[in-house]
């Protein structure tokens, strides 16, 4: 099984590795605001096991929520813009090293911009300054995320390589 998808962490381990209080994640799950693979897979007595990908989802959603993006919209941005676009090709292989996930995000700047009632998501190589000089957005209109460091921290907290 792909180590990114292997359900081997407890709920608390996954939440804390992502830097989020377990009670916060429980509220998001109870309200249906975030989708995690563990929600679909339960062990014998109803205990769920979470994957490293679940912890990455939680961490990325939390960073967007810190910037005042509603949880359900942050979850959609993470799923469509980050997991599907950047990680999708890594999930199909059985033995993708977790280091490859971090490498897929190296030097990638993720930008989230409010667009009416929704949010626009894009990515680019480079820095915040490069994006602004290109006239893509003004500094106050764009939220910049470097997920490489966030994901590296999650893996360190989970004690996986």
From TrEMBL:
GO molecular function: DNA binding
InterPro entries, alphabetized: DNA-bd_dom_put_sf (IPR009061), MerR-type_HTH_dom (IPR000551)
One Pfam family named in its UniProt record: MerR_1
Gene3D superfamilies referenced in this protein's UniProt entry, alphabetically: 1.10.1660.10
Signal peptide interval: none
GO biological process: regulation of DNA-templated transcription
Start and end residues of each HTH merR-type domain: 10-78
Protein name according to UniProt: HTH merR-type domain-containing protein
Organism ancestry: Bacteria, Pseudomonadati, Thermodesulfobacteriota, Desulfovibrionia, Desulfovibrionales
